[in-house]
Amino acid sequence: YAGGNLTEYLGRLLRERGYGFTTSAELELVKELKEKMCYVALDYSEESHIDVDSIEKEFETTDGRVIVLGDERYRCPEALFDPSMIGMETQGVHNIIYSTISSTDLDLRPDLWQNIIVSGGNTQFPGYLNRVNRELCRLAPGTTKVRTYRPEIADSAWAGGSLLSSLSAFKECWIYQDEYDEVGPIIIHRKCW
Prior knowledge:
With 193 residues, the chain is mainly alpha-helical. 47% of the residues lie in helices and 6% in strands.
């Protein structure tokens, strides 16, 4: 699931509020509303008990219309943690991270738990990083330290590659030019799996 799924979901939520967004220009407006007005609740259950009036915000379009968003502001990105809200049968982002780390070698896990890098458009929601970290702290075993980072989008691939290559256990996976030349692309299966 990606930003388009959330944009579509916000459009549905706004239709329930009485707004109609059908044209491609109006759907671009929904995307803009999502990017500028939505946030991730630290605790969704707690947030749903807050008086909606206290979180309502108005958005004025270029043509002067005023669109009011209330609980849609946090309900939309909640689908990242509970994809069933948008009809998807998959795990939330925190569970995917947990499953991924849990599938690695035991000796790699402490480093991975302390160096979780998230990137992409959906990670830009205010509150996203705190929520992911909170959920992962609940899932992590025992006294495991969890640290989650969100680097600048332009630097994400470099930061992730740099971090991965600096792990001592990763050195076993390095493929040198002479090995590649001798064996070919199949070398990755010998070195990494």
